[in-house]
Write a structure and sequence with these properties.
The protein is of the alpha+beta class. 61% of the residues lie in helices and 13% in strands. Strand 3 and strand 4 form a beta hairpin.
């Protein structure tokens, strides 16, 4: 109800704002007409003289501002070239002092790359970054080396260089995507004192860090390419803001900045998806599911390109007299209940699968404060048909009052370790429940696909945030602008909320 009132308030505010704008324009027009009728020739002459003086003063002020802006623009371009030079120098230092000597140590290198191919992939990707940086720096120096503050501003053009190289920056994707994996792997290898090749690898790193400038760590050099792409975007934005719209470089800079932002966003999204898939695979491998229960998990596997990992943790079931501990894995569409059984190889936990709860089928209910002094308990309620289902952990079946003869409610009880943890779980569950139900109501397949595969499920529908939802969808590769901005889509959203409130009220009754 609060949300619906808010939507109506927004609509009313827009109407009010439009009306005020129209009223102001009418008042301005009336004042202009009145001033025209009351102005004498002498007043007009005096007014003209004042306007001329004001224009002269304004012109002088504008000239000083333009000169200051031009100086700042020149300095920003020089800063870009300076930082690019430093970046390239540091990468070359890493290549000469660390990577080249590593590649010459055949026995160690072959052992490392054979057992861990991701290292070979990582260092190959880094070499590609070095070559691309060399190309960018060469183009910048060829263009701007002879510039000084006396160089006419309209000759200081660099936008076309970044228009050309922006698509090539996608080559960073391979490096960025596996950076976290390689960083963790290097630490693991260095800690292993049993394998001679790993001990030699650790020694090689220590020797490099001693010889590096200011004793910088290995990670200082490895993280540089991760930081560089966002800085390209930031520096170009700064230069573009200091460039007047009449400058020949303005449109090139604007386009280059947009292209680099697109590359950054695409790389970040790709990395997020890859990280998510790795997490899903890791969880899938850690849960033991009996063959006959595989069909309980939508798709027959936890690994699914449309599924997003949200969180995991311990919660307790208090449905029965005895308080029982379970371990839950929450995803964008399902909640899986498991039981930790043993520690596998290398201390990796293993879990026994118990049950899958479909989030688009349940309603979240808080416990009555009078019955829960610690405020740590909540329920998930699911309306089901047929006879009562017994034997599943943490479930309780009750007849729904006023519903059909076969309609019942399955209640799952959850108790958390603290009040804050309960609120956190409930917020995440409610967001995904709303998101999945909303997705199901949409008839447009393109929008359904976009919602199911982008980050909106995890973040944007928190509290029915329409603005964030639309922003996330508009950023998707499918062109949905007309669908999303249409008024009927907003009205559909409101209809969905009405339906959700009616159903929730009925089920909670």
């Amino acid at each position: 109800e609060t949300l619906l009132d808010a939507v109506k308030h927004v609509v009313d505010s827009i109407k009010s704002l439009l009306q005020k704008t129209m009223d102001l324009k009418l008042e301005e027009k009336a004042m202009e007409e009145l001033n025209k009728g009351n102005t004498s020739p002498r007043d007009e002459n005096n007014s003209k003289e004042l306007e001329d003086e004001s224009a002269s003063s304004s012109s002088s002020d504008n000239s000083e501002k333009d000169q200051k802006r031009a100086r700042n623009r020149f300095r920003s371009i020089k800063e870009l070239i300076s930082t690019e030079t430093t970046y390239f120098t540091e990468l070359k230092t890493f290549t000469v002092l660390f990577l080249d000597p590593l590649l010459k140590k055949d026995k160690m290198r072959l052992q490392l790359f054979k057992e861990h191919p991701v290292l070979d992939q990582f260092f190959t990707s880094l070499s590609s970054c070095v070559e691309l940086t060399k190309k960018i720096l060469g183009k910048l120096k060829d263009r701007a080396l002879a510039w000084d503050e006396q160089t006419p501003e309209n000759q200081q053009n660099i936008g076309d260089i970044f228009q050309e190289v922006a698509p090539l920056l996608r080559s960073y994707r391979g490096y960025i995507n596996i950076y976290d994996i390689v960083s963790a792997l290097i630490e693991e290898l260095r800690a292993n004192k049993k394998v001679p090749e790993y001990v030699e690898f650790d020694k090689h790193i220590k020797e490099f860090e001693k010889s590096a400038k200011n004793g910088q760590s290995l990670n200082f050099y490895l993280i540089m390419p991760i930081q560089r792409l966002p800085r390209y975007e930031m520096i170009l934005q700064s230069i573009q803001k200091l460039t007047s719209k009449s400058h020949p470089d303005f449109h090139s800079l604007t386009d280059a900045t947009r292209k680099i932002k697109t590359v950054n966003d695409a790389i970040n999204e790709f990395k997020r998806q890859e990280d998510n898939m790795r997490k899903l695979r890791k969880i899938d491998q850690s849960i033991v599911i009996e063959h006959e229960k595989l069909n309980e998990v939508p798709g027959g596997s936890i690994v699914n390109t449309k599924r997003i990992y949200i969180r995991e943790g311990v919660m307790y079931d208090t449905t029965q007299k005895k308080k029982r501990e379970f371990y839950y894995f929450m995803f964008s569409d399902i909640l899986i209940r498991t039981k930790p059984v043993l520690k596998g190889n290398a201390g990796v936990p293993t879990y026994t699968y118990l049950e899958t709860i479909l989030l688009n089928k349940v309603t979240l209910k808080d416990e009555d404060p009078d019955k829960d002094i610690l405020n740590v308990r909540f329920y998930l309620l699911e309306r089901i048909g047929g006879s009562a289902i017994g034997g599943k952990a943490g479930t309780n079946i009750k007849r729904t009052e006023g519903a059909g003869p076969k309609s019942q409610v399955k209640s799952s009880t959850f108790e958390c370790l603290s009040e804050n943890e309960k609120k956190s779980w409930m917020n995440d569950l409610q967001s995904s429940i709303y998101a999945m139900r909303f997705i199901e109501t949409i008839k447009d397949e393109d929008i359904r696909e976009a919602l199911a595969t982008c980050k909106v499920v995890e973040y944007a529908l928190i509290g029915f945030d329409m603005k964030q939802t639309f922003a996330a969808l508009l950023g998707h590769h499918v062109d949905l602008e007309m669908n999303l901005l249409a008024l009927d889509h907003v009205l559909h959203f409101c209809d969905y909320i009405n339906k959700e409130m009616e159903e929730s009220a009925d089920i909670l009754k």
